[in-house]
Amino acid sequence: MVMETLQIRLTKGLIAEIQKLVDKDIYSSISEAVRDSVRRLVLGKEDKIVVPEAKEVQEKIKKEIKKQLQKPTGTIDFYPEEMATRKAIFRKFMAVAERYNFKQIETPAFENLSLLTQKEGEEIKQQIFTLEKRGEEEFGLRFDITVPAARMFIEKQKELSRPVKWFYLTRMWRYERPQQGRLREFYQFGTELFGSNKPEADAEVISLLIDSFRALGLTEKDFFVKVNNRKLLQGLLEGVIEKGDIFEIISVIDKKSKITDDEFDEELKRIKVNEENINKIKTIINIKDINEIKEYCNNDLSKEGLEELKSILNLLKGKKEFLRIDLSTARGLAYYTGIVFEAYDKNEKYRALAGGGRYDKLIEMFNGEPTPATGFGMGYATLSLLLKEKGLIPTIDSSPDYFIAIINDEVREKAIEIASNLRKKCKVEIDLMQRNLGNQFKFANKIGAKKVIIVGPDELKEGKVKVKDMETRKEEEVSLDNLFKNT
RNA sequence: GUGGCCAUAGUUUAGUGGUAGAAUACAGGACUGUGGAUCCUGUGGCCCGAGUUCGAUUCUCGGUGGCUACCCCA
Questions:
Q1: In Å, what is the CA distance from A123 to each residue of A119, A214, A223, A237, A364?
Q2: In chain A, residues 454 through 473 whose Cβ sits under 7 angstroms from any atom of nucleic acid strand B
Q3: CATH number, position A239
């Protein structure tokens, strides 16, 4: 046997893997293992020298790789179709926001942990994705944008002319158990309006919210917005019960729509509300007509809240078919101070599509100059569930204008040249698989190419190509000059 | 954080205590200068670990992951 010497360079990692096989006595040495691999590769499957344990090791490696490929919990991939859909939806949001003259902002994905945890209690702290500590600083991924936006606002509050109208369309992270309409990484569209304490500002963001849904084709048959006022609710409750337990009661009221009547009574009894007051609370939160509320308002707070609510509804008269007064909408977050609202699908099948309200104290909580603010946030996950149900997911035509079919190698270069010429203006796909013509047509058909350009030696000699319309199936010879001119 | 259901090719799934079929998708051929149909071929799989067993993809337990409800919530 004639032997030749050959030098092969291997990566460290690969050598380590091979060493493992040697350690297991599957091979006597590294070079023996390499020789065997080469033999297998050259001789093919049939003649390979099968070492059962080596096969097992290979399986294990395969499984390990598979495990590494696992996507983190609560995240989703956007394949081209989904990406196109999302882009189309986001474009519509953007268009609406811009028509309202809101300006888009973006904040860092992570912020100082202390900033993120400042406004909220323990609950939200557990939901923050914290980053590994580097030096003295601790960071966390943003879980909403209200806080970072407030930071941005405060940094420039002296120079910004009011009202400041910002919108965002970006992703957030929350460490939670995923469920329908909720992920750990999610997209949100929303607005923040700083500097106006007038009902006009609230009406503006609510109006924008409604128009955003409408831009997607949703109508008053598909969604509605529950509106309430925290001052009103709080004032009404204070009229019924002694102070102190108000916030606990509000949190029970907030979930009323999710639980049965009996459970609602139970919850209130547990926090020591007596039966008489339970009935009073029920009566109050079931009021649907704004004119009826007045007779229950026996203190300044509730009167003030009622006035605010009234003027907002007045300003939104043109959209009243989308609005519903709901005194049980409280929203959990403690920082809301006035109007609060939530958008739902008409059957309330899904969780809230969007939510927001007025938060006049937040800026000063972060040591900014006291500034009133209002806004909303809308999640993409729940929204897309509703759009899917209503058949309103936008379909995007991603098909190319041309597919360039190549007859043989002789004309390949020329075909590529034609492609790059056409690509100055058109969407062009070209054969990258060296397929035969039949399969090239099959492929062109599959990707929905509108026309196929056949580049063949015969026509090319006359400076021409064949162009076939895939729909009419008609074919014509076109000179290259005309082809470029007409496109 | 708590509970329920589930885990088999890329996807949808059938099935079994003796390591697995189908449909679809993908690649190719029939048809090397013409697509959507048809036929054929190929590629590709039992989530991980431990236990029971001669033998586990199947049974048991644990883990991981998915879906979902609760908690909470923009």
A1: 11, 34, 30, 25, 22
A2: 454, 456-459, 466, 468, 470-471, 473
A3: 3.30.930.10
